[in-house]
Fold each of these.
Amino acid sequence: MTSPNTRALRYAVVGAGMAGILAAIKLKERGEDFTVFEKAAEVGGTWRENRYPGLSCDVPAHAYTYTFEPYPEWKAYYATGPDVQDYFQFVTEKYGITPFIRFNTEVAGLDWSDSTSKWTVTLGDGSSGTFDVVIAASGVLHHPNVPRIEGLESFEGPAFHTARWDDDAPIDGAKVGLIGSGSTGIQIVTAINKRVEKLVHFQRSPQWVMPVPYFQYSDEEREAFRRDPALIDAIRFSDEYIGNVRRFTDAITDIDGPQMQMIEDICRDYFEQSIRDPELKEKLRPNYRAACKRLIYSWCYYDEVQHPAVFVETGKIARVEPKGVRMADGTFHELDTLVLATGFQADKFIRPAGVTGQGGMTLDAFWAERPTAHYAVTLPHFPNFFMLNGPTGPVGNFSLIDIAERQWDYIDQLIDVLRAGEAASVMPTVEAHAAYEERRIAAAKTTIFGSGCTSWYLDRTGVPASWPWSYDAFADAMAHPVMTEYAFKAAVAA
Ligand code: NAP
């Protein structure tokens, strides 16, 4: 339910990835005055930045769309990265969002003024503007984690992070080193193993793999999707997808329950039946529970890793040398190219932009212990500041588009109070947020993510930085903000 505007607001949306495009579409639909600031030259966020071979989205393509914009054009059950990027570009054009985006424009600072109830948004070039509302849609996984490995800078060939893929780096017929076995590293193994002379996959931790189906859609099927959107709905709202999301989130939160047992059984059986060589099998056998790290959804990794060109190196890296990687036991891997699939600094969010809220409170200070947000969306001390896919939101093998849409519904209801002229600003109370965080942290420690492994899901104190309850609990929470948990500053008379 949205109320009519009695007060005109100006909105700054930070980021033109999946969540920023969503915010822009919703604001444009309402005829609001908004600007999207995008540091790069194109929309797409993570799908623009990542171009590594094998990049695909492990959420079924038809479920990885905005609910209001199903897409008949998907080429396969799981979309490639470039196809997902095409979708976001298509949506941006279709909804006429491009004119509202300032590309190549990085937000450097956000400063709240209590006297005017406005944010000053300072850009990288030093210019600034004032806005009533900030929508922080800057994404999570966009600051590469480049490991501190001795000698890395001495490597003579190309060495680069996966989010900075070097198209000129030798891959075909080359000796390639790949450090990291998260979703990214695993996808790269499956894409380049047959192109290289040798692929040394440096694996610090093995992964549990969930087998999933894969198939292409034919031209006839795409034509049928175009004619009859109900066919798309039958996929994206199917029990196979929605039911899986529910079962998955139930499993995460009830780690000794039947759903988790099922996930573990499927992963273990797939592993046991797939890997033939006993030595490789021991290298690939995880010593932690399935779904503790983000599960690998793959239809081909176990086949591809057994290709003769792939060597899984589980020893400790001693250092990088000009011509390759030296292991702690003295073994040397001569390499032409070194790829760092070493993940992201997942605690940055909108930073390094400096954000200063009420009373001089900075985001760095507020997040000194861990990034946190009320129901993953709002922050005490930071009025009229709303996050999409902010800290402590749901994470796992499901669509973050759905998460962002539900968060938007929550945000929209809070902004309605501002639009109606009933308040100049809104933010959660310190007490309400502290109570939420206490409950969240207690629950998060009991989820599968806290069951004894390392991953980017954990904050630096080792607590899972995620939504620790069910999918339905999240949907319920987003449907209706608890207004008594919010402090509203009275509107200034016009
Ligand atoms: P990640 O899951 O954080 O994995 C990083 C990998 O690098 C881990 O294997 C880690 O080992 C290793 N590593 C880090 N520092 C290292 C060091 N100093 N020496 C040796 N190994 C090191 O990162 P990611 O694979 O880029 O994936 C991040 C997230 O992006 C995923 O979880 C997912 O949410 C998203 N993603 C999704 C898809 C998809 O839809 N299919 C694809 C790619 C990425 P440890 O495990 O031992 O720490």
Note: The chain has a mean pLDDT of 96.
Amino acid sequence: MATAKKSTSKPKKKTLKLELDRYSGNVGPDVVDVQALYKNHGVFTYDPGFMSTASCQSAITYIDGDKGELMYRGYPIEQLAQQSSYLECCYLLLFGELPTTDQLIEFEDTIRNHTLVHEQLMTFYHGFRRDAHPMAILCGVVGALSSFYHDSLDVNDPEHRQLSGYRIIAKMPTLVAMAYKYSIGQAFVYPDNGLTYSGNFLKMMFAVPAEPYEVNPVVEKAMDRIFILHADHEQNASTSTVRLAGSSGANPFACIAAGVASLWGPAHGGANEAVLDMLAEIGSVENIPDYIEKVKDKLNPTRLMGFGHRVYKNFDPRATIMRETCHEVLSELGVNDPMLDIAMELERIALEDDYFVSRKLYPNVDFYSGIILRAIGIPTNMFTCIFALSRTVGWISHWIEMLGEEQQKIGRPRQLYTGAKHRDFVPLSERKKK
Ligand code: CMC
């Protein structure tokens, strides 16, 4: 079978000097307006990986990667993680302000009202193999929600957008827990609306119909914190995917399913699972030096999973909070995990080794969240689903923000074409193998 040839032609370099408008946001680097570049000068901008490109305006989340700062609607993540709850953060991300007591009670009630999923959706789960990756199941069932909630799919109606947002935030824990229960052959556990968002999730994950279940408050708090820390992260790959899918007018559940798919990759949300796989591969503290040498070898593609970040070139502020929570949970549960010893030694070496220091590769949020989730008893292949659950509010907030813009355009990037120039079709009988 022939495979498409990779273009080897190098683009020719020329210089173009231009005067462009420059805009300032409230904080952060200015942006240069290139919207009319093609119309006025016949050229596109070229920025693979969006290294310097702002794809939209947004008032939701701000990151200063050099300072290691993350804020939701202006509030520092450290304050939110210490003093707030996940649902309070959801309200903040969706509506822009912290709720009053009445507003929070009403919001929590609304979310509670939507925790159940349609009984027919359960049959979807039975169509999957028991050993299917739970992210594969999640991509499918989240997309399938669009076939159940026709009454909230008009993307041009702000009330429909809001109702879809409530529904998906409320149903995500139910869907994620169902994916887990299905994979281990246990009965689905219905939501318990007398519990908190995180407590209910833990119950749906770990209760069995034959036994009573009590939520451990330390674990509940840790779960809530994991949700808060992953709730939004401005224009990352999955959020940009949701925005791009949404820009065509696709329905919210289809857009969130696209976000789930994008999150799955090991360079993004899949990293927390990859961290645990890496720790298992290392096996013991004595094997760390050899592993580090492998990571530093330019000819070897192995990376230290849970280290480095596209935006944070200083400590990831979420990692600092996760590290503390990690120790709290392990001591509460009395877990003595050899994986944690490996993790701590890796962290120590990486923070001293010139390879990591010079490249500003610090532990990121996923480095610690994986260890906590393991201690709670959540299997590795569920980690990215939990990230997806937490990030759903961020995706929905960005989707709602984008659709609320006055002049909303379909996202359509340009390209630098390096393929064949015009050529004429050759009939099959005259073609020679190249
Ligand atoms: N281990 C070893 N070397 C690394 C790592 C790593 N984890 N990350 C980056 N590098 C090196 C890379 O080889 C390159 O070296 P050189 O300059 O000698 O070629 C340099 O650092 C810059 O790397 P890059 O690929 O240009 O950096 P990036 O900003 O494109 O990549 C990243 C960011 C997160 C994809 C990358 O650091 C990585 O693959 N990390 C491991 C996966 C991971 O933990 N991802 C979770 C991110 S946090 C959760 C989320 O927000 O989704």
Note: The radius of gyration is 24 Å.
Amino acid sequence: MLLYDLDLPSLTNLLAQWGEPAYRARQIWEGLYLHLYDSPAQFTNLPISLRAKLAEEFTFNPFTVKTFLDSSDGFTRKTLFQLPDGHLIEAVLMRYGDPADMPPSGSPQNQRFWGESPKGTRGARRTLCISTQAGCAMGCVFCATGQLGFKRHLTSGEIVAQVLYYARMLKDVNESVTNIVLMGMGEPFHNYDNVMAAIDRLNDKDGYNFGARRITLSTVGLVPQIRRFADEKRQVNLAISLHAVEDDERLAIMPVAKRYKIDEILDACRYYIAQTGRRVTFEWALISGVNDTPEVAAKLAARLKGLLCHVNAIPLNPTAGYAGQAASRQRAERFKQTLEQAGIPCTIRMRRGIEIQAGCGQLAGAVGL
Ligand code: SAH
Ligand code: SF4
């Protein structure tokens, strides 16, 4: 079993069963989540016999790193992990600095990913995009993960381990993860319990202590889970992948639209906003001629009117299995303007890591294979 799959009460119970004093559980917990140890030998404050027992009973590291790729500007890294049963998942780290401080792409400062921060770290972010499933069952046609199909759910520990892997690397250069987005492979709400357990474990004050407000969960729009999430009132940010303004248009690119109508999704969002007081983000992959016209933008603005929300639009990233093209910059700007003139805030997201297939929807577990 993977040690990261345990929460603190379970670990405490287990150690009590082993006849260990109660403080040992906390020592292990701190080793894992404060000191970021990932091998039994690092737990030098534990007796050798206990270290041996832990090593015998648990896996400390669930992944083999198959390969990693850095973008040419050096600010995006995608790592391909192999799970013990052979499945592949990916996690992407994006380093953002204050744009004024960023050296130009291709400059010597940008040649190395590690050890060299973007010059000046004012407002710098280290955003980590992690996977929640190997593959995905939702089948969105424009998404490489969807094109792959569903392999399996990740355990809570496998989700947490992706964060700790990068946290260790960043620690070596005196940096840390500042934001986590659950936007890698998989549909987080399809793996609800494990995802929430992972979030709670990362959030644990006595452990990694990562603020829920710095975590964003993105869903294809599973209505019952949006409502459950609203009731649980976590401080995690919620993003909904909408991509279309009419049900039939949505169904043409997202099979899940057969199950949940846009009206039901928006109602669930209203419920979420009422329960939490938090703003919802709607994600919109701008596909040329499909959902990037001013007419679509105007309809979208009308549907979202009065909702505490924000639209995050991103020109479509290319994937092997979908012929759709990214909206032009001009169309994207026009889309944004139309929404904003109607009172709906909108940002056009920077595309990151496209040339290493690390952009949104490009994760197919296939780098270097
Ligand atoms: N399953 C979740 C989270 C992972 S996908 C979801 O669908 O929300 C993360 C985001 O990338 C989603 O908004 C998804 O719609 C978007 N996406 C998928 N394929 C894309 C592509 N080819 N280009 C741009 N965005 C894409
Ligand atoms: Fe799954 Fe999200 Fe890709 Fe759709 S966009 S197939 S829900 S990972």
Note: DSSP finds eleven helices and twelve strands in the chain.
Amino acid sequence: MSKKTQNHRIRIFDTTLRDGEQCPGASMNLREKLEVARQLSRLKVDVIEAGFPVISDGDFEAVRTIASEIKGITIAGLARCVSRDIDAAAEAVKPAGKKGRIHVFLATSKIHREHKLGKAEDEIIRLAVQGVKRAKGHLDDVEFSPEDGSRTEPDFLIRVCQAVIAAGATTVNIPDTVGWAVPDEFGALIGQLYGSIPEFQSGKAVISVHCHNDLGLAVANSLAAVRNGARQVECTVNGIGERAGNASLEELVMTMKTRADFYSGFTCGVNTKEIVKSSRLVSRMSGLVVQRSKAIVGENAFAHSSGIHQDGILKKRETYEIMDPQDVGWGKTELPLTKHSGRAAVAVRLKHLGFKMNDDEVTAIFSKFKEIGDKKKFVYDEDLSALIEGQITEVPETWSLDYLSVSSGNHTIPTATVRLKRPDSKKSKNDEELQDASLGDGPVDAALKAIDRLTKTRGRVKDYNIRSVSEGKDALGEVTIKVDFGDGALVTGKGASTDVIEASAKAYLNAVNRHLYGGDARQGKKAKTRRAAQP
Ligand code: KIV
Ligand code: ZN
């Protein structure tokens, strides 16, 4: 049997929490990363790349916490070919025991060797071998990535692969770092590596691919690689990642499943019914909105507007639908909650949605639920998820919104009056409450300007998105905002309310609080990145 027709299990290596998080403005806090990791575990991916431990204390802590909590899935930490990186990755994934993996990378292409590293081929091989051996001293499961692999001379790439396998690498990942590859060529490259290296054929080492989407070909390139010997694909939920992103997990998995006739024999362990839930969670946690027409998980992915299509679907679904929406987890809340639902019903629903919350958290969500239950007839799962995720994304509230009043209209200069509280001061006799008013270009602008005056910050809104969380005129509006507070870093804020001006003010205040809270952490992250020695 040829390698194309045997029964092959494709490992899904999810890098949403590492490469995905490298997307500007997508950075997540520890609790957000943990919720994503729990969802990836329900999705049943094979490997979670949880972060780049040496880069900051926050990344280290996140990898360590995920490695302690998530069981039965391999947890990887990224490292450059530098002892300090490798040791930090080993320490961070230690709680995963035998399920820990160190992923070491070093650039190999001519352009990187000559212009970035200033090193000759033999020196690159020496460093790669040294890095893999050091990682192997900590753990059995070691992955090596020749960065910019798709632009590396094939003969040299083969030498690198042979050397790192001999040094102990069990997975060799070929990255298309800059999204340069095209499917036929990339498939042929993987076929050449597979054909030249006996360890790939015997299964002693696995070929992996990691494709970026600069030309929109990440999924096509990954699938071409699978047909030519790759047995692990690296991907992210919603395709988020550096620049144009990485190969999208849901597109890869659903292509192999839907076109099993063509990808015959290739299977993976993903529970596809968890795909939509994973997409929503990652979108909320990362603040990266999914485009409506995105394949599989976009709002329009299964919406048929033309009469001819609707007629066909009613007669036989398969006339215009190649996948069953329920197979990827599209569906409605069977029994929406109402304001009459009790704490126990809410707790059951939270569990059903997959959130692990302690008693205090359930109580906090229940009180928010009561507030919106008074304002809208039905509380859907999506509403509840927005509330929970709002709770998770909270950072210590340096400021909280106490009062908001706006006046606007087509013949009025919009004005907002805002009162903020510093929650710490609640305990003191002289509760600190500050109030101010501002004019603006609209009610949202006026409210945000008033917040700037009160908090003495000056944020520039770089992106603003509002979406209805569920159906109906009374639906919760969820605002995601990206703000630059002058240091070039984008801070994401989120807020939800049935009143969109209030949702906007909450989202902006969430960004202000994150900026004030995260300033030190971000400085640390930058300083550490600069300090880390280049290989
Ligand atoms: O794109 C890339 O080359 C990477 C490596 C670290 C695998 O992300
Ligand atoms: Zn990458």
Note: The radius of gyration is 25 Å.
